[in-house]
């Protein structure tokens, strides 16, 4: 994935998440302690935010930063095969994590 694609996904996801929280760009900017222009520029993929800015935005939205970069049905092209592959990979990683936690618990 190219950096421009990541930047576009960030902008699209930010806009979607902000709207799901029923916030205007101004309201999110105020809550995140950044300028409204910063929010607009990120959503329009004109600006690559710093780690600090991303942290402030995710905190204001009460989400983990990774949600801003995760593929969604709107940002994944290529149809059901790709979506199924992503779902399978996430499920496998989740299962492996759970198994490792259970092994740690058994050691106690």
Keywords, separated by commas or semicolons:
single chain, 108 residues, 5 helices, globular, mainly alpha
Short description:
By secondary structure, the protein is mostly helical. It is built from five helices and no strands.
Question: Your description of this structure?
Answer:
There is one protein chain. The chain is an all-alpha fold and about 110 residues long. The chain has five helices and no strands. The chain has helices spanning about 5-20, 25-30, 35-45, 50-60, 80-105. Helix 2 (about 25-30) packs across helix 3 (about 35-45) and helix 2 crosses helix 4 (about 50-60). The radius of gyration is 17 Å and the shape is globular. It starts with a helix and ends with a helix.
Helix content: 55-70%
- Nearest-angstrom radius of gyration? 17 Å
| Dominant shape | globular
Approximately what portion of the residues adopt beta-strand conformation? under 5%
Q: Summarize the main sheet.
A: none
Question: Runs with pLDDT <50, length 5+?
Answer: none
Gap between N and C termini: 42 Å
Please count the beta strands (DSSP E, at least 2 residues each). Answer: 0
Structural class: mainly alpha
List the total number of helices.
5
Mean of pLDDT: 86
The sequence of SSEs as H and E is HHHHH
Summarize the topology.
Blueprint: H1 3-20, H2 25-32, H3 36-43, H4 51-61, H5 80-107
């Amino acid at each position: 994935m190219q950096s421009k694609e990541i930047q576009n996904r960030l902008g699209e996801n930010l806009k979607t998440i902000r709207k799901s929280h029923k916030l205007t760009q101004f309201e999110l900017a105020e809550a995140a302690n950044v300028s409204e222009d910063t929010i607009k520029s990120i959503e329009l993929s004109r600006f690559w935010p710093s780690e600090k800015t991303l942290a402030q935005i995710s905190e204001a939205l009460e989400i983990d930063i990774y949600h801003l970069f995760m593929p969604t049905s709107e940002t994944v092209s290529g149809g059901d095969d790709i979506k199924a592959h992503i779902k399978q990979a996430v499920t496998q990683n989740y299962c492996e994590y759970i198994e490792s936690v259970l092994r740690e618990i058994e050691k106690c």
